[in-house]
Structures are given as C-alpha cells and as structure tokens.
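Tokens for Aryl-alcohol dehydrogenase-like predicted oxidoreductase. Go.
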Amino acid sequence: MEHRRLGTSGLRVSRVGLGCMSYGEASTGLHRWTLDEDAAAPFFRQAVELGVTFWDTANVYQGGTSEEIVGRAVRRYARREDIVLATKVHGTMHAGPGGSGLSRKAVLEQLDASLRRLGTDYVDVYYVHRFDDEVPVEETMEALHDVVRAGKVRYLGASSMWAWQLATMQHAAQLHGWTRFTAMEDQYNVLRREEEREMIPLCLDQGVGLTPYSPLAKGRAARPWGEQTERSSSDTVAKAFDRDVDRPVVDAVQRVAEARGVPMAQVALAWVLAKPVVSCAIVGATKPHHLADAVAALDVELDAHETAALEDPYTTQDNYWW
C-alpha cells in the first residue's frame, strides 16, 4: 500500500480509503442496500490485509449505526493506532438545537456522540459534512479548534461545499490563529470534474489534500454502459450518472481497460489517483473484488494518450450537485 501526506500536514494516509456509508442497519437509514455488521465484517478484514487504513464514516450514515459497526471493527481487526479514523458532522441526528448543523452546541454534542458510538477517545479527521449558512463561520471554526485543543480531534476536514465557502472558513481560522482544514472530501471522478474549476486550485494553494468520495462515479465508471446493479437501479443519486452525456466517458474507460486487460474500475480510479491534489480516494466496498481492484489501481500508470482519451469526451455541467 502506498501512503501520502494529507495535504501539507504531517499525517500520512493510505492512498485508498474505505468508505463506510455502505455499512449499517438498513432499517435505521435512507439506504436499503447497506450491509449489516456480519456482512460487512469481511471487508474490514480485507482492508487491514491490504493496508487500507483510512476508514471514513459519518454520524448520519444509517442513523449512527455505521459508526457503531466501524468502531467495533477497529477493535476486532486492527489496533486503534494503526487506523486513520474519520467521521463527520452537520446532518440531522435529532430535532433538538444540537441535533444538526455547525453551531458550537452541535459540534460539541455530535462529536461526543460520535466518539461514544465509535468507542474511541479521538478521531483522526473530523469533517464538516456540509457548509452551514445559518451559523457564523467564526463560531464553527472556534468550536472545531477547541475540540482539536481538547485532544478529541487530530485534523480537520471539509466536504461538499463551494470553493468560496471553504475559503471563508479557512480565512476565519487564519485570522484568529485557529486550526485550519487540511482535507477536502468532495465528489471527483471522470464523470464529475467541476471541482477542477475552483476547488482544486484553492486546495492546492492552501495545502489541503483531496480525499474524494465516489471516485468511480457510484460505480458507473466501473462497468459498461447499460449494466445496472441493485444500487444503481434504486438509488436516485446513482441514477444521476445515467445521463447521455456521460456515456462517451464510460465508453472511453471501457476501451482503455480492454486495451490494458484490466477491470474498468482500475482505470477510472488510476485517473483519480494520478491527480497531485488527491491524497486518498475513498472507495465503498460491497463485493470482494472492490478493494482488491482499488489497490491494484495504484499500479496502473496512465500515459498521456490514455489520459486524454478519458478526459476529452467530458461535458461541462452548469448545475453542479453533491
């Protein structure tokens, strides 16, 4: 397994991360395709065997049950000090004043709740899951700084926001001498490249490392056009990757993969990992070959012609979403 520093921080992370939104009790969340604890166990064991030590979850994943499963998996299959554990705050956990958002009350309350579910004293990377336009950025950044100073969080990350919003939060932290973000978890793949306009240049300037989710475009870039899975046929977010303008890119991934004799997933992920701003790509694994293909992608070095073949068919999107 290769490792890289998270942005310009001193933290080294595995180039492939395990996305844990796929694990949790289906009855407690929005997604019916998630794996329960017994079904998820082999993927945590496989992650440890492959050296995939960056594990990413969130408080809202399946009503908190993802955090519970992840926490037990850390204790069963690894040593806490060997895992870079990440979780998030923002989404609604309950109707009370501290149940959602990025107020000081919410940050402190939800972090403590996440630590209890994870069964740990600290998280390595704590992400704000979305921007909260109802709370002053100074309030959020000071609260995040305080949990770092308290030893409950090692590094801060942001996720799924506009570049100006990240810049505003970073600026507030810099003005007051508070802890700044060192990671950005956004959607970035061969079918969604709008972050190249502003977010990626900003992250490069600020020394923020990308830990992109959906590097395989919800699996669309990992299978020939027209093939469906249980998730792609039922998940409204996954269905959004069935646009006609996406097909030329998917077809290009298939051609490059066939010419190399490797799975499409390796080619699509190799394209993401080749970007200098990317520290770690977050991969969701629900089948035995998912993590194996992801790790194998580290050995796939696309040449200039292959890269151009994947990038040239891309169609810019006017309405970006996360």
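The chain has a mean pLDDT of 94.
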